[in-house]
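Continuing the series of single-chain predictions for the mutant panel. This is the parent chain; the variants come on the following pages.
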Amino acid sequence: MKNRICRKFLASALALTLVGSMLAGCGNKPAENVNNTESSTTEANTSTEEANTAQTDNASDKEEPAAPEADTSAEEVTLKIATWDATTIATTAPLIEAFEAAHPNIKVELIDIASADYTQKLTVMLNGGNDLDVVWIKDADTTPSIAARGQLEDLTPYIERDGIDLDAYNGVASRLNIGGKQVALPISTGFYLLYYNKDIFDEANVPYPSNDMTWAEFEELAAKVTSGEGNDKKYGALLHTWQACVQNWGVQDGEHTILDTDYTFFKPYYEMALRMQDAGTIMDFSTLKTGNIHYSSPFQQGQVAMMPMGTWFMATMISKINAGECSVNWGIATLPHADNLEAGYTVGSTTPLGINANSSNKEAAWEFIKFACGEEGAKIYSENGDIPAMKDDSILAVIAGLDGMPEGAAEALVTKNIALDRPLDEKSAEVNQMLGEEHSLIMIGELSIDDGLAEMAERSKEIQGK
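Parent structure:
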């Protein structure tokens, strides 16, 4: 136990260590918002301990709400909406602008929070009875715990009244039905792709990554295109510091989840990551972590040839290139897969929108959710290079045809199966945080792979009471 505490302290210390040598991506302008950082549905995993210890009423103990009556008044309403990194996410501003244009009596006040702090700060705000109206739920796996505390309005009466077709969300909406209550609707559903730098491959005279490539071939390809030394080095790949960028490949088959209590299925991918790190074909984990280097910087500066990352990064690349802030000649391919899987198997997550049960503007809040998660919001998302939860082939065609999207994008976006990176379960957030701690210790060499996986198993059993 003493050793484990020491290792947890080391992991926490590593995560908090920052140096002033953070790389700036492709001449990015300084953000106007001091909280500005890039977002991800699998971004840094913030603590949800307060959520687990909060003493509030369980939503299941409350009476079913009566069907609300639509508010037809023109009274001006201001909605307080919590989100993250609003100044850098390409879809946020046009979504708000379009909504306000369609609803001139409703104004939106965004509560913009830094991505890394969002989940924890949202928990504190909701537990404190904050008068937020709409909440973006960054980490979808925290939805059950928020709902269990009675902090999310049941959307079922609104959905039934307005005839919303939940089938349009490709099966994702049903996962947000908890205890018979539709506690949120999905606004976007991102999944992992392989981004690559065409110029680096051209310089090495190596063919571009294909849409049907195994992880073993990914590792071999990275070695072929790694070149140079020091500041001039071009790395074959970048595996970002999130545990998702190793562990996700273990759940890609859809047969395993992070709630398993035997994590040996992670082993091949840790072996690959450490081999590539030792060979110098990927950037060193400790350097990335202690330098707080965001994944966008090395890729946008042309330092890495390949990078597995979510579809949300497409919008960032399009925005930066169209603004003249980045000149990387980029491409995308389907995520590499295990030997026993077909091409098109990937990992993803959804981003839910919910109404704060404490809101005094629930009808206006529902209008926003209905707009953002509906056809209007889907159109705005697709036109800005992001993938909405309400999608079909026509939406993907719009995204693939956007100015700034690389050739062959339509083929790269085809998926056969999207496994959730984190199950929507009350224990997911705590287990995921634990996995992140052990991940850091494995990647810095403090724990062997086998010892780290054994620690994960033991701690997961404790968390889940198994």
